[in-house]
UniProtKB/TrEMBL annotation:
<feature type="domain" description="DUF1554">
    <location>
        <begin position="88"/>
        <end position="216"/>
    </location>
</feature>
<dbReference type="InterPro" id="IPR016187">
    <property type="entry name" value="CTDL_fold"/>
</dbReference>
<dbReference type="InterPro" id="IPR016186">
    <property type="entry name" value="C-type_lectin-like/link_sf"/>
</dbReference>
<protein>
    <submittedName>
        <fullName>PF07588 family protein</fullName>
    </submittedName>
</protein>
<dbReference type="Pfam" id="PF07588">
    <property type="entry name" value="DUF1554"/>
</dbReference>
<dbReference type="InterPro" id="IPR011448">
    <property type="entry name" value="DUF1554"/>
</dbReference>
Length: 240
């Protein structure tokens, strides 16, 4: 091939590369400048994003999807809220998941936020394995409180207290409730799960089992009282 022909081929390849680069910039015109953003030509994930966009023939789909995901992200509560269910229940709550569902459907629940039941059992949820979580927050199992976080009453936003580094509300500024209301718990006074006093893991509402409870107009929120599981008591629900 002549020198002139070789130069022509080189120019064609160079021009095609420029065109491809400009085309890719157009495809990702919606991108924010983020080093891990597949919509950003400077990102290490840019090539992946490019193939996705070409395959879908939609230059905006990938970026729009990312923006929707970012917009729908739920921020952690601060402070977090606590309420007591308007409806009392026997100890047959349908397990921990059933109790969580009752929190979600209760009329006292605010319109925003996700809430879980402040309960302990032998299978699904616990605060501590040892007294006051001597081994740290690693002892938690699906625990409902966060370390070093403030909690307030839903009804009037009055402060209840702040958890310690183990996610335990060791001291309270105010009780959870002003009127006397008892709630099921399943804890010992040292935040460990009561061995057998949790209404058979909150599935049995008969008088064959017993569950621990406490009057939430007093401090602290956990106590040593108990009752047969065929009796009705409310639930404490904690924002996540």
């Amino acid at each position: 091939m002549s020198k002139k022909g070789t130069n022509s081929v080189r120019n064609l390849i160079f021009e095609n590369r420029i065109q491809l680069f400009l085309f890719s910039l157009y495809l990702f015109s919606c991108a924010d400048l983020k080093m891990n953003n597949p919509c950003d030509p400077l990102s290490k994930d840019y090539t992946t994003g490019l193939f996705v966009k070409i395959a879908t023939n939609d230059k905006d789909a990938y970026c729009d999807a990312n923006r929707k995901n970012e917009a729908s992200a739920v921020l952690p509560c601060n402070p977090c809220r606590i309420f007591i269910t308007a409806v009392p229940y026997s100890g047959g709550l349908g397990g921990i998941s059933g109790a969580d569902s009752k929190c979600a459907l209760d009329t006292n629940k605010p319109n925003s936020g996700t809430y879980k039941a402040f309960l302990s059992d032998a299978i699904v949820r616990r605060a501590c394995l040892t007294a006051n979580c001597g081994g740290g927050a690693s002892e938690h199992l699906d625990w409902v409180m966060k370390p070093n976080s403030s909690y307030v009453r839903v009804a009037d936003a009055v402060a209840i207290g702040t958890t310690n580094s183990n996610g335990l509300l060791m001291t309270q500024t105010n009780p959870v409730s002003i009127p006397s209301v008892t709630t099921w718990l399943g804890f010992n006074a040292n935040w460990t799960t009561e061995t057998s006093l949790h209404c058979d893991n909150w599935i049995d509402g008969s008088n064959s089992f017993v569950g621990t409870l406490n009057d939430q107009s007093t401090n602290p929120m956990i106590g040593a009282a108990s009752n047969l599981c065929n009796n009705s008591h409310s639930l404490l629900c904690v924002e996540q």
